[in-house]
Write a structure and sequence with these properties.
The complex is a heterodimer of chains A (about 375) and B (about 180). Chain A is mostly helical. Chain A has helices spanning about 5-40, 55-65, 75-95, 120-140, 145-180, 190-195, 215-225, 240, 250-275, 285, 295-320, 330-360, and strands at about 100-105, 110, 200, 205. In chain A, the strands form 2 sheets. Chain A has a two-stranded antiparallel ribbon with strand order 1-2. Chain A has a two-stranded antiparallel ribbon with strand order 3-4. In chain A, β3 (about 200) and β4 (about 205) form a beta hairpin. In chain A, α1 (about 5-40) crosses α11 (about 295-320), α2 runs antiparallel to α9 and α9 (about 250-275) crosses α11. Chain B has about 180 residues and is mainly alpha-helical. The chains are: A mainly alpha (about 375), B mainly alpha (about 180). The interface between A and B is medium-sized, with 26 and 26 residues.
């Protein structure tokens, strides 16, 4: 690897990172505006036009606030936990391709994603299972009872819903294997996007959401639970646990938990868009046979990707404004008695259909 | 070169984690030390281009350590440090003796077998994007029967555990919804 290669890798990692930070700043504002709209409130409207700079103002405020250290806290873990929250959140998005790879004249390509790993999906699962450590450690190290309860809840919730999340992804992988050229499975996210190009029956985009709707439902519910968002926000239930795992956190350390939550929402939504909505594939220009100029054709995939991601992000905000929080036994019942059996059933169905599609019926 | 540096750094962190596991008074610190060791090992696998093994390591053991964490908090209590009373007589002396013997054997084996810090990797091993296929092919081809038998064994174990826990006192109790 020479210097040019190194700089190119650095460039795409930094570009992905900056993209993530920018959309996160926007998302915090967007959520407050959208939820305010749904509840007949105005929402933030002071900082900048339509209050769009509200997040920047809040961030600066948190930056200058005092960081309170509780006397009974385990300081080492207490300081470490916010970092453990942020790092997996950013690493998760590094796997997601957010635009069509740029092709150069000499045939080399520059993929618009942090890294294209052969084990992309497994890496995503690994990172989402690391993310819960932040919540648990924060809850435990605060040395206070409500954060501890939040942390213990996070443990059980994460273990329960990770299984459903993984099973929903497996169904997609099986389906992608059947629809691939050579019938080989792939866990690489760029390959999964590439296999969703084209259309079914000439008009329906070849996106996984149409054949894999059941998997999408399970994935979405599990993703909301994994990001600890309402209606699964039992780890920070205000009415029961004060603030849950971050009760004792203040200033910049609290801001990092907050940042990690919104980065996770966007990452999970981007993952959903990649797995189920065709990623950066778009049909508008090709479907109607328009001749798009070169610069537009280069930008459009990223626009498609962001649009699809924001559809899912909007659904995150929407159900937060709509649904009441689950009770803890309802959470466990939904996870273990509905989602996991449902996901296994869907996976079995997918496997049978995929096998018939790929190898024809055994009696044929 | 960079592999050697990474190896030493990761070896140090995994050893530090391992020492934390046995030396820490607080069981939660022990659990975190175990996590650190497992994570360092995963990064060593990545350095050796075994991406799949690294991912599986993190996914499986991160969940396992999380469960351990929960058990520690639930069973031992939040603030209690472990009691240091030893039940075996001469435990420390025995451990030191065994450690010396193990280290001696390791050094003898390493020096006797022409060990080098940077093994010359064959050129074929440089392909980083084939690990899943390389693992899956023998697993689901040549060793399919053994693999499925293991899966069946694990299912039986899980069912047995549920049966033991659930039917302890004769008939199953009604679970309140």
């Amino acid at each position: 690897m020479d210097l040019t290669d190194f700089l190119l890798v650095l460039l795409r990692v930094v570009a992905t990172f900056v993209l993530l930070l920018l959309v996160t700043v926007l998302n915090v504002w967007a959520e407050r505006k959208i939820v305010a709209d749904m509840q007949n409130r105005i929402g933030p409207d002071r900082a900048g036009p339509w209050g769009i700079l509200q997040t920047v103002a809040d961030g600066l405020k948190l930056f200058f606030k005092e960081q309170v250290n509780p006397r009974k806290a385990e300081m080492g873990m207490f300081v470490l936990a916010p970092f453990l929250a942020v790092i997996p959140a950013f690493l998760l998005f590094m796997m997601v391709p957010w635009g069509r790879p740029i092709e150069f004249a000499d045939g080399s390509t520059f993929p618009l994603q942090g890294a294209d790993l052969n084990i992309g999906l497994l890496f995503v699962l690994a990172m989402s299972s690391m993310a819960v450590y932040a919540v648990v450690l924060a809850g435990w190290s605060s040395g206070s009872k409500y954060p501890l309860l939040g942390g213990v809840r996070a443990t059980a919730q994460a273990i329960s819903y990770e299984a459903a999340l993984g099973l929903a992804m497996v169904a997609v992988v099986v389906w992608m294997a059947a629809s691939g050229e050579d019938g080989v499975m792939t866990l690489s996210l760029s390959e999964i996007v590439a296999r969703q190009q084209g259309t079914y029956l000439g008009f329906l985009p070849r996106w996984n959401i149409f054949p894999q709707f059941g998997a999408f439902l399970v994935f979405f519910i599990a993703a909301v639970a994994e990001t600890n968002r309402a209606p699964f926000d039992l780890v920070e239930a205000e009415q029961e646990l004060v603030g849950g795992f971050h009760t004792e956190y203040s200033g910049m350390r609290f801001a990092m938990f907050f940042l990690a939550e919104y980065v996770n929402i966007f990452s999970m939504a981007a993952l959903g868009a990649t797995l189920f909505l065709g990623g950066w594939n778009g049909q508008i220009d090709t479907l109607f046979g328009w001749s798009t100029p070169g610069w537009l054709a280069a930008i459009l995939p990223t626009v498609y990707f962001l649009f699809k991601t924001y559809v899912i992000v909007f659904m995150f905000f929407w159900i937060r404004a709509t649904l009441p929080r689950l009770r803890y036994d309802q959470l466990m019942n939904l996870g273990w008695k509905r989602l996991i059996p449902g996901a296994i059933g869907w996976l079995a169905l997918t496997a049978v259909v995929a096998a018939f599609w790929r190898f024809d019926a055994p009696w044929a | 070169m960079i592999e050697t540096i990474l190896f030493f750094v990761l070896a140090a962190t995994s050893l530090a984690g391992a020492i934390t596991v046995i030396a820490a008074r607080n069981p939660v610190h022990s659990a975190m030390g175990l996590l650190g060791t497992l994570f360092s090992l995963a990064v060593i696998y990545v350095v050796n281009l075994a991406h799949l093994v690294a991912a599986v390591q993190v996914i499986v053991y991160a969940g396992a350590v999380m469960t351990l964490f929960l058990f520690v908090i639930m069973l031992i209590g939040v603030d209690k440090a472990e009691e240091r009373d030893e039940t075996l007589p001469y435990q420390r002396q025995l451990v030191i003796g065994l450690a010396v013997i193990t280290c001696g054997l390791a050094i003898a084996l390493a020096t006797g077998s022409g060990f080098r810090w940077t093994p010359a990797a064959p050129a074929a091993a440089q392909a980083p994007n084939g690990t899943i296929e390389n693992v899956a092919e023998p697993l689901f081809g040549e060793w399919l029967l053994a693999f499925e038998a293991t899966a069946l064994l694990l299912t039986i174990a899980a069912a047995g555990a549920i049966a033991l826990a659930y039917f302890r006192r004769g008939a199953p109790e009604e679970v309140a919804e």
